[in-house]
Amino acid sequence: MTTAAILTAAGSGTRLGHVLPKALVPLAGEPLVVHAARRLASCGVVDLVVVPAPGDHLAAFESVLSAADLGVPVTVVTGGMSRQASVAAALATVPPDVDVVLVHDAARSLAPSSLAERVVQAVRAGRRAVVPGVPVPDTVVEVGPEGPTAVEDRVPGTVATAGATAELVTGNPDRSVLRSVQTPQGFDRALLDRAHAAGAHRAGDESLAATDDASLVAALGEPVHVVPGDAAAVKITTPRDLALARLLLEEHG
Ligand code: C5P
């Protein structure tokens, strides 16, 4: 029984307004990728960590991760054009004796160790694909194009003015059955291998690639299970998220 964690870190820092890759951006003096890796390594159920990183920053990732002295082996590999491609590149290097794989985003840097532990436990208990999920606080709607006549048809004589573009609500899903999906997600290794092989044709195009691994498993028609997520596992995307993460770290460590 060996568990590997893939920690995706090959994204750019553009939306954070940084020249550094996002995962190297410091939070309280340590790069985001180190915060995430430390929490994975200390959960007690992860035996090795593989980090897909931008090809032109491999040495910097290796240096900050080895300086962090995480207590489990950490390897850095070149990531891909999309998150999906980065996970596939890392998965290809995971040793054959690994039977459970966690996939986590360095951007969810403060996801606590207890969350990784909960996900691995659920996989080891027989659920072959497990994601953390949290309830959705907002009312969520589905939308489609408004179409040229949507306003004129209902209010005769009205013309939708330029600049007042809008979409049309096409569905009102029941909020109580919706969940926001987080990482780390956990998988039976053979199932994750199969899901990535089946979805490989999408990996090279960021607009077609899967945004998480559970959706690749679901596309095979296999069940995906949801365990309770954690508010601290929010994704850090914007400078505001980084400021929030700093506050969370001060409050909870
Ligand atoms: O861009 P976004 O925040 O959705 O990325 C989610 C995660 O996927 C991040 O941890 C990012 O580093 C990673 N990623 C990757 N390879 C890419 C794009 C994103 O590993 N090509």
From TrEMBL:
It catalyses: 2-C-methyl-D-erythritol 4-phosphate + CTP + H(+) = 4-CDP-2-C-methyl-D-erythritol + diphosphate. Its EC number is 2.7.7.60. It is an enzyme of class 2 (transferase). Gene3D superfamilies: Spore Coat Polysaccharide Biosynthesis Protein SpsA, Chain A. It comes from the Bacteria. The record marks R175, K235 as: Positions MEP for the nucleophilic attack. GO terms for molecular function: 2-C-methyl-D-erythritol 4-phosphate cytidylyltransferase activity. The record marks R15, K22 as: Transition state stabilizer. This is 2-C-methyl-D-erythritol 4-phosphate cytidylyltransferase. It comes from Cellulomonas fimi. The lineage of its organism: Bacteria, Bacillati, Actinomycetota, Actinomycetes, Micrococcales.
